[in-house]
Amino acid sequence: MTAVTASVSGGAGELRGPLAVVPPAERGATRIADRVVAKIAGQAAREALGELPPDAGPPHATVVVHHGTARLRVHLELDYPGDIGARCARVRRHVVERVGALVGIEVLEVAVQVERLHPAQAHGVAQGRTR
Hints:
By secondary structure, the chain is of the alpha+beta class. Helix content is about 25%, strand content about 35%. It contains 2 helices and 5 strands. The chain has a 3-stranded mixed beta sheet with strand order 3-4-5. The protein is elongated. It starts with a strand and ends in a 12-residue tail after the last strand.
């Protein structure tokens, strides 16, 4: 640790003396709001999914952060047919990785909730009801 010397001019005289350099970890704390962690998790889920069905809503997340750890719930809309389990696993892995890297907290749980499935439209098939 090195010392810094400061010189301050005042009305009564000059103050000279060493000032201790405080290590960064002891200067204070950084608090990241739960809604910010949720926003990052939602964006990470979007990155993991790639292209979404045209009428699907974007992924979003809810989060509970407690003592430097997080538990997340990610809400998705997926196209169908497709490997839903593999896509959910990819979302889980990517969310854990990105939230850990960007926020610096440990993610203990990512629950993926598929809210809606969007059936793939076959080419040449009329939309709407058929009889």
